[in-house]
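pasting for ref. prot 1 ->
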Amino acid sequence: MSDDILAVIGLGYVGLPLAVEFGKHRPVIGFDIRDDRIKELRTGKDHTREVEPDELAAAQHLVFTSDPQDLREARIFIITVPTPVDAHKRPDLTPLLKASETVGRALKRGDIVIYESTVYPGATEEDCVPVLERVSGLNFNEDFFCGYSPERINPGDKAHRLTTITKVTSGSTPETAETVDRLYSSIVSAGTHKAESIRVAEAAKVIENTQRDLNIALVNELAIIFNRMGIDTEAVLKAAGTKWNFLPFRPGLVGGHCIGVDPYYLTHKAEALGYHPQVILAGRRINDGMGAFVAGQMVKAMLRCRIQVDGARVLVLGLTFKENCPDLRNTRVVDVVKELRDYGVQVDVHDPWADAKEALHEYGLDLIGTPEAGAYDGIVLAVAHDTFRTAGPAALRRYGRDGALFCDLKSVFARDASDLRL
């Protein structure tokens, strides 16, 4: 198995670290359909900042390609493409199915295809395998085999890395499950957990983020309630947190490629089986509505301070879905921007981590460079980048005019350092 060539399909936040780690020990083909991504990686750079140049250089057995023909050399395929939702919050398996077609054209007898993308239970065997069979002309569990090992990459997290997070593994046959488990055990020092089946592994992944989503929804709802009571939510959570088993969740915008997306995969499957989830969807509604709530609170505060809302200028600091990370996928900061603009507010967005071209392409937002001092009626600290933490509240306030409002959405600073926070 150690001599078999392995191919990783999709070189984003999940696929690249995986390809690099395997590439330190065995022959690996890193495949991506984006030619510009391949060119970038061949120069030893990674714009996602998940892999440093020295780590790329250490993967001596890794080659990059955008040519599907090169995949024919591989015997093990790991698919790590995005699994988003569409505008109606329905699972969009298009990237996954297209990747399955690509792999199907390279599939040979005895090969193993492993999926890491987040899906609903049953998707691997019910949606992906038929594509592999149709394109390859081979029979599942006779000619080729499948595994599922859900990704647990946390973008921007330099402490919890691929090798230090327990890896859940599974296979379509007992023998395949053992092979997949040994494969990941060779690079994951934290160890593996071999699930009973592919469906169990799929379900485990999708509930990891559903659980976090619901916990955040609870504190978001508490923040809304305490706001009406005139109680500081952060102070309440600190007090409650003195109990040993109180979970340390904080209110905020819930975006990104996982927490704000994965629950819809589970609810989609449940509804297809005739069950309408109530708690999960209620949590999603609360979290999806937080952008409007934040904007509404900002506008109310401006009115109380007799700031003319229509035509006012507000600076939003941060656009990425989380701190110290360039990832813009499914960021909910855009909800705050949209809502403020609907009130007639002129909004500028500044984020030293975000790629300006990507922000324009994905959201139609023109990011600004260094903000002008004394130019704004309000400042919203939306993402807790270290850059903003280090600058401090006094420096961030200097972007505002006299009497401007400062909203610390992430409660980064002390309560008396801001005019408004969740």
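and prot 2 ->
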Amino acid sequence: MNPLQAREPQITNNVDWVTVMLYIACVMMGWLNVYAAVYSPEEQTSIFDMSTNAGKQLMWIGTAGLLIICILVINYRFWDTFAFVIYGLVILLLLLVLVAGTPIKGSRSWFKIGSFSLQPAEFSKLATALALARYIDYPGVSLTKLKDQLWCAAIIGLPAVLIIASNETGSMLVFASFVIMLYREGLPGIYPLIGIVIIALFILTLFIPQLYIMGVIVVLTGGAFFLLPHYQRSVQNVLAIVISGVLMIGVVAGVDFFVNDVLQPHQQKRIKVLINPGIDPRGVGWNVTQAKIAIGSGRLWGKGFLEGTQTKFDFVPEQSTDFIFCTVGEEHGFVGSVIVVGLFLMLLIRIILLAEKQRTRFARVYGYCVAGIFFFHLMINIGMTVGLMPVIGIPLPYFSYGGSSLWSFSILLFIFLKLDSRRSSMFSRV
């Protein structure tokens, strides 16, 4: 029998209802905060008013529910069978948006038809997760082999490059989240370590003069040589130490070029704000400054639902999208913020626990991709609202207003829950 024609059990059988409840809690809290972000005391519009973001978000929630039902009804084998087809279709959309997309805030990454907008970049993470899971599931694939490492890099790199071409840097950075899954599946630890070292050197160079950092690298390189036991001082080991030191110095030397000649002017300004939050508080630093004021003004318990003054007077731009966490902090305070972060942490932990229980490599790989994507979105979005990261336009899952974001995160999660629901009836293939 064709695996796609196999009889499926009832859609409620074996679905992890703990994760479903966490999802519903996130979506409902997100909807209420979208309403709070656009609420006006003068107009006092209803939360169901379709002319407001809150009303439109309710429509997206309803359509997301229909998509979830479809996912739970479709045979679970559909996703690994057509993983590369889905990936190819999304790549095609990313190419088409470069030509036919509508420019919005300097980014050509949206298809706009009337009042309906669709951002293919949001769905590219889903498609890439499926493609990676399908490839790694092939017999004989091992991430200790250079060939398989290069294939995975190509699967990740193609949509990332197309997203950069559409000037959507924030969405591209989330593709780094796949390293978490790759490391879990056997990628040598040297690769994540190199990435961490490069990021650390980049950040340090922004705050400390280059000559100081280069001096420290030279001292550490020399120290590594002298601490190396005599019997291990082979030409190969000495060359490895010297090359590592030279490469680190090269990274430090290239930071100025990258910031001043590669990044666009608005991106350069965001880096400068991260280094010096007080620079140009009425200009480029306005978003971060007002976001901090909004969150700080909530104190312990917050000002109360619909009582946020920073929100009501539009001090924080993009209040219902990129900076939705400011509404949480202002109206619900530190306690409410901790509850929201705790809710997401429980969701992340639950996904990882389920991923570890999977009996197929495809499901496990996909589960870790889901966890990595969620983690990076949370880290970057919340980090930028409190001034720990540069302002990057990526949504907070299930909280930020927008149909593309809600749909993509809902589909991403429930495909995994569908795969997990079949775990008990499978033989282990991992």
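The radius of gyration is 23 Å.
The CA atoms of residues 170 and 354 lie 28 Å apart.
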